[in-house]
Amino acid sequence: MTLEKTLKNGIKGMLPSRMVNYSRDLIDLSRIYPSYIWGKGKAPFPKSVTIDITFRCTCRCVMCALYGEHRDGWSNQEKDKELSTDEWLRVIDDLHAYGLQSICFTGGEPFLRKDLLTIIEYAKRKGLSVNVLTAGALLNREICSHLVEIGLDDLSVSIDGPINIHNAIRRSKVFEAAIEGIRHIQRKKELCGSQVPNITIANTIQKMNQEHLHELVPLAHELGVYLSYSPLFFTNNCSKKREQELDNACTAAKDENQGVLDSHRCVDVNILLKELNQVKTEAEALGQPVYVPFTRKSDIYLRYYDFNHSVLKKCFLPWYASRIDPFGNVYPCSVNVKCGNVRQAPFHKIWNNAKYQKFRNSLKKIGLFPGCAKCCVLSPEHKMWDILPCIGN
Ligand SMILES: C[S@@+](CC[C@H](N)C(=O)[O-])C[C@H]1O[C@@H](n2cnc3c(N)ncnc32)[C@H](O)[C@@H]1O
Ligand code: SF4
Ligand code: SF4
After folding, report:
1. Which residues line ligand 1 (CB under 6 A)?
2. How would you label 276-298 residue by residue, b for 16+ Cβ within 10 Å and e otherwise?
3. Staple partner for 251: which of 61, 221, 275, 338, CB 3.0–4.6 Å?
């Protein structure tokens, strides 16, 4: 075990979870902060990368950047242009050789890739920690067994509410398959005496589920999984336009639209606060571990109604993480700035290329892009980001 891992585990055992998150952030920051200050846009090789392995999906969730009700057409699904199995394995070779520690597979629906298990298994054999985000519709018994056997570390299954609410948000009848999938995995883990994958039910708080959040507490408890609620990510057209103007020298290509409709965004602040309090009370009574992002009415209001308000004023993520789309394009994060393509150059050559440096420099200079305001990365857990001074060039 590396010194860093030993240190992290030691701290984890001693401190309450909020403190653990701050400490983890501090350790990560100590690695990248010198380059943030003096690196002129360069950064040490990332420890984690998110791979959108396909943009194809079985669902059409109303709030989704790819398939939401606010979109004119569906996302770019071009299956033929997706990286092949071999191409992904070479990407993993490159990432691993330069020190990557963890990969998150998301999309779209990652399990639509028939080779996902092969790719995960390959990453696991290299010692990487692997996390998958899924809607869970394709989690059949065979796939679930395999996931446990190959040692997937974390699985996040999106559940937006009880069956009717969930299926209405997802615009697809996927609730039962997702829950059954979780049950398969838990049974298989028990059979194999395995602790992993750790499973999280991930909920996105929006108007359609604002009165049903507490109904997930007994469900998560019965399934023996962690429960996490997240705020909605959205932008308005005005912030998008300003963002393009700010970084217009980079190629904008990402087929995402975060302009979630008001009818899905505009939660009732009073109802939601009451609901979240009920979640906490019920979770406490059951001993159910849960993450709830808001404790105050004013925070909910600012998050859902003030387009310019952001929890933090600056972001460090592009100094220690990156994102690759199904076609090999590399982006610093959710921002629509393409920095290269792994078909044309290996990731390690893209990570600190001129475009990436330009992106980091402009982010450092202005703190956040206008479209960043509601990014899920900006959470109170990263409040160290705001405390550290932004000096250097
Ligand atoms: C984009 S999905 C990709 C993985 C998979 N398709 C799924 O739904 O779990 C990742 C997570 O983002 C959530 N999500 C979708 N639209 C969102 C939005 N506008 N704001 C915040 N989270 C969103 C999904 O519910 C899911 O939990
Ligand atoms: S399942 Fe995920 S990717 Fe598919 S539409 Fe829903 S949120 Fe979007
Ligand atoms: S806050 Fe902005 S720069 Fe930071 S990760 Fe989110 S979208 Fe990217």
Report:
1. 57, 61, 63-64, 106-109, 133-135, 158, 202, 204, 230, 232-234, 260, 376
2. beebeebbeeeebebbbbbeeee
3. 338
